Amino acid sequence: MKNIVIAVCAVAALLNQVSVSAQGECWSVSNIKGYAAYANSGYKFSADGLPNTIMICFTSDGGVVTGSDIKFVKFGASTLAGYGGNNQGNELFEVYQLDRELRKLLYTKSRIGTKTVAPVLSDVVYAFVGDAAPLRR
Q: Alpha-carbon distance 29 to 64, whole Å?
């Protein structure tokens, strides 16, 4: 059963990648590490990172980042900025910037009002850098 679930997830991820990559220029980003400061820890920075590889695509309408439901606006050729939230005080802002020369992705995120969405989670600010590789069409 576990193998079936893994296979279904792999196929879904592949189909998502194909449909997203058809929309614009896409990059795979891995080894995403840096620092995070959580409100529950007094906003003291500590080493952190994202466990998964993500895909970021730049489109004529803005862009798409796997695992995110945020609407992004494209600034220039290499920057996506997005925001989200709810009417109860949750506010989220994310910025993804691609350093094409060094093939690095710079990722920042800040979120307040988190407990209106998930009471066990904390407000947070992230500053991460990841290794970026262009996806071939």
A: 13
Q: Give strand pairing partners of 36.
A: 46, 126
- Determine the pLDDT at residue 137: 72
Beta bridge partners of 95: 81, 108
What stretches in the chain show pLDDT beneath 50?
Answer: 1-18, 20-21
Using the 8-state DSSP alphabet, how is residue 135 labeled? P
Q: How many CB atoms lie within 10 A of CB 98?
A: 22
CB-based contact 109:70 (threshold 8 Å):
no
Beta bridge partners of 127: 35, 108
User: Which DSSP helix (H) or strand (E) runs through 17?
Assistant: helix 2-21
Residue with tokens 């798409």: 64
The pTM of this model reads 0.81
Count Cβ atoms below 10 Å from residue 114 Cβ, excluding itself: 20
